[in-house]
Specification:
The protein has 248 residues and is of the alpha/beta class. The chain has one domain (27-244): SGNH hydrolase (Rossmann fold, 3-Layer(aba) Sandwich), CATH 3.40.50.1110. Helix content is 47%, strand content 9%. It is built from 9 helices and 5 strands. The protein has helices spanning 2-19, 38-41, 59-70, 88-98, 126-143, 171-194, 202-209, 215-218, 227-244, and strands spanning 31-36, 77-80, 106-110, 148-152, 199-200. The chain has a 5-stranded parallel beta sheet with strand order 2-1-3-4-5. α5 (126-143) packs parallel to α6. The longest helix has 24 residues, at 171-194. The protein is globular, with a radius of gyration of 17 Å. It starts with a helix and ends with a helix.
Length: 248
């Protein structure tokens, strides 16, 4: 229980410690949308009125909880539209209704692991990943010129699992999968540069964290974070956002 309390204390302090507690990038009545796959989905409730579960259990939920509590006067609205199993092609198919229709002021995207570890090699090339992702960004900026977008780097950790997908604990399998995900990370970096967008370097954050505690502390299967992993993602995400838009 001490470890849980300590983690919660660190996460609570993460926001005010970054930018004097102001984070001016989030304005009055802003809509903040999180988009991606299962890491963002977090088991969120799709239908109904149980507002305890509309954000899922993930980094987006923690960010929404912290900012909502810190800035109640700003009337911020947080929306989660991550869907488990999605690739960038899946995002493209639902982009008009699940992203553009909400007219978000701020959009966070994390996509890539299903384009890598779980993908059918015949279904999507790295070139297609980049082309589709590029078009999503171009279309979004054309439709919503004032939107702020943050790109999140996909990541992997060397943790074994029993789900039937590649055993990332095996050093040879992990090396092969990591080589592929690095290609996708490079795409995200290129797109961030092309559109002058911030990039959240989750892989480096997890690699550094693994020097302090085993990979299993941060992810339970090499793909999906534990509560500690999501807490780490929150800190890295907020740090990146605050540094890129220090004046709003």
């Amino acid at each position: 229980m001490k470890n849980l309390a300590a983690l919660a204390f660190v996460v609570v302090l993460a926001v005010p410690a970054i930018a004097g507690g102001s984070l001016p990038v989030f304005h009055q009545d802003d809509v903040i949308l999180f988009q991606g796959d299962s890491i963002t989905d977090g088991g969120r409730q799709r239908e109904g009125s149980d507002y305890n579960h509309i954000m899922g259990q993930d980094y987006g939920y923690i960010i929404a909880a912290q900012l909502g509590a810190l800035y109640p006067g700003r009337n911020l609205t947080f929306i989660n539209r991550g869907i488990s199993g999605n690739s960038v092609v899946d995002l493209a198919g639902r982009w008009p209704g699940d992203t553009l229709a909400f007219k978000p002021n701020f959009l966070s995207i994390l996509i890539g692991v299903n384009d890598t570890v779980f993908r059918d090699p015949k279904s999507e090339t790295i070139e297609q990943y980049e082309q589709v992702y590029d078009k999503l960004l171009a279309d979004t900026l054309a439709a919503l010129p004032s939107i702020k977008i943050v790109l999140c780097e996909p990541f992997l950790l060397p943790v074994g699992n029993g789900h039937g997908w590649p055993n990332l604990k095996d050093i040879n399998i992990f090396a092969a999968e990591m080589a592929e995900i690095k290609k996708h990370q490079a795409v995200v970096a290129r797109l961030a540069h092309k559109y002058n967008l911030p990039e959240v370097l989750f892989q480096k954050a997890f690699d550094d964290a693994c020097l302090k505690a085993p990979a299993e502390h941060w992810s339970w299967d090499g793909v999906h974070p534990t509560y500690a992993g999501h807490g780490l993602m929150v800190q890295e995400w907020l740090k990146t956002v605050a540094a890129f838009w220090p004046n709003g």
